[in-house]
């Protein structure tokens, strides 16, 4: 099976990323509904083989932060869908893919300071609760996408030259 082009793996990835986008949209809609109700929820989880329990409390501030993360990943999956849709077209190196790759790289690189700041605001008192390792992954992903973008620009230039010579 081909990776790029019509009837390829990228076509399957379009469908998969679209399903992920719809699920993210539903998740964001549900979380926004709960957020705007303004209610606080608490859930108790029993820890097996001990007499302890873990209590999770959803507050208005936690839900606001969660909505920002959900909105980010909604845009993330939408960009993935558009990139794979462009890659599954007849023309492999097209300007549509280059545009969406640039936006996706910017999203990943610029989101790192924003998400770090949001996480810092949420866990100011309890810095040990903050998990920032995924931010490094987004930064590396953005840099790798910039390299991919350079390859696609070069491929588009070569493809345009080839079409002009023929």
Instruction: Tell me the structural class.
Output: mainly alpha
Radius of gyration computed on alpha carbons: 21 Å
Q: Provide the β-strand percentage band.
A: 5-15%
Please summarize the sheet with the most strands: 2 strands, antiparallel
Mean pLDDT, to the nearest integer, reads 81
- Helix-strand pattern: HEEHHH
Give a written overview of the molecule:
It is a single chain. The protein is mainly alpha-helical and 166 residues long. Strands 1-2 form a two-stranded antiparallel ribbon. Helix 1 runs antiparallel to helix 2. The mean pLDDT is 81.
List keywords for this structure.
single chain; 166 residues; mainly alpha; two-stranded antiparallel ribbon; 4 helices; 2 strands; 71% helix; elongated
Ordered list of secondary-structure elements with their pairings:
Blueprint: H1 9-37, E1 41-46, E2 53-58, H2 60-87, H3 95-122, H4 133-165
Antiparallel strand pairs: 1-2
Helix pairs in contact: 1-2, 2-3, 3-4
Summary?
By secondary structure, the protein is mainly α. 71% of the residues lie in helices and 7% in strands. It contains four helices and two strands.
């Amino acid at each position: 099976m081909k990776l790029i082009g019509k009837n390829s793996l990228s076509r399957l990835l379009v469908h998969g990323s679209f399903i992920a986008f719809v699920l993210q949209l539903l998740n964001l809609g549900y979380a926004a509904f709960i957020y705007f109700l303004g209610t606080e929820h608490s859930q108790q989880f029993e820890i097996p083989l001990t007499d302890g329990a873990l209590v999770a409390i959803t507050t208005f501030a936690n839900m606001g932060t969660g909505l920002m993360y959900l909105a980010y990943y909604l845009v993330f999956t939408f960009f993935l869908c558009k990139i794979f849709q462009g890659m599954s077209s007849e023309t492999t190196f097209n300007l549509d893919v280059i545009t969406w790759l640039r936006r996706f790289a910017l999203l990943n690189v610029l989101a790192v300071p924003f998400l770090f700041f949001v996480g810092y605001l949420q866990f100011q008192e309890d810095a040990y609760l903050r998990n920032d390792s995924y931010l490094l992954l987004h930064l590396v992903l953005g840099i790798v996408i910039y390299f991919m973008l350079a390859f696609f620009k070069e491929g588009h230039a070569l493809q345009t030259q080839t079409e002009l010579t023929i």
